[in-house]
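for the record, two folds in this file. i put them one after another cuz i was lazy. first one right below, seq on top, structure tokens after. the second one comes after a little note so u can tell where it starts
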Amino acid sequence: MPSGVRDIQLLELKDTISQLNNTISTQNELIRSLQKMLQERDAKDSEKDQLIANLQAQLDYLKTRLFGSTSEIRHEQLPGQLDLFHLQTEDEPEPVPLEVEYIEVKAHKKARKSKAAYDEVFADLPTENVYVDTLTEEQKTCDVCGTMMVPIGHEPIRTELRYTEPKLERIDYYATTYECPQCKETEDPRFIKDEGTPALIPGSYASSGLAAHVMYYKYVMSMPLYRQEQQSAGGTALLLLGSHTTLLAAGNTQRPRKGLYTSGSSGIPIL
């Protein structure tokens, strides 16, 4: 083979080797660059993990302080600090246990208060005696001889309380006019009219009982007037409405202050 061709081949091989070396150098640089990037990313990941761990520890601590049980007892002993509650010297004697003295206390039994009877509880209530008569004529007939039986005595069988709701009654008062029979035929006949007892409130048809009822429930039981009207049925509400209006409008229109204008010791306000 001529030497010229061999030289050309050698030059080509040198160029190829040079290119390969350049490629290898470039790849090595790329590898080093990638390794550096991986190291930096690993460092950042480590910092993030540490930050997450710190934040998680702070969160756990705050949760414990906020929601966990708290105690002022310190269990760990700080270095260089004495314990104030467990100081014991070598010369301190052991405490001598005290003998417990037992004192016998006599048991006592509390007397049980007896229940009040009906006669004591209902002593102030008006009493009505009802003699029951529910047996038929056939039941009152003697089953031996057929004679009609006659009552021979009574005995109590039960007690009940009957509640009667408040009711309104209309009472019309009529004045009576009197004349003198002797002066009737004269020029000056004489007349006199019996007006009776004047009304509790002039111009009102509220009696003393109705006025006391309205004022007691309004000022003692704190029940407004409209509530009292709602509890009344039918025409009663109209009567109460008129009474309420008259009661509040009569005399002094100002509402009495609490604790003033009371009647005796009952504490019922007076308009």
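(here's the note) second protein begins now
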Amino acid sequence: MSIAANVVIGLVLVIHLYIVVLEMVLWTRPRGRAVFGTTPEYAEATKTLAANQGLYNGFLAAGLIWALLADGATAYQAKLFFLGCVLAAGLYGGATVGRRILFVQAAPAAVGLSWCCWPADGRHRPARAPAPGTGPHRPALRRAARPRQLAGAGRAPGGLS
């Protein structure tokens, strides 16, 4: 995985931390109302719903922090999972709330997902299933070496086999 993928994940993380602050703290204040285009009355009536939504965005941010701090297969799987969740939320928000969400939330997550799936050295390698009995904690099982047969050994006399 490339450094660029982690930079994009960091960007998605910062976006979600900003969304948390907007929805949980600034929802009824002029800055929050300006960002979401709401009236003071609407903001006051929906502040509990906005705070709840902000909490969910906080969980996405927490997951992305975990994904960036983890290592190995756990980090890779967490990055794919949480970026996938952000992408799904962005697509749903883009379809139900407004197209701006597609660009603010879904597009960066899609870029991050695609870069997570691209090897760090830039060369594409076809996916290949690991050999049976192998994995991060199990060494490959090796077959016992067979002794080399000498030419002609084990053949019937006269070349008949």
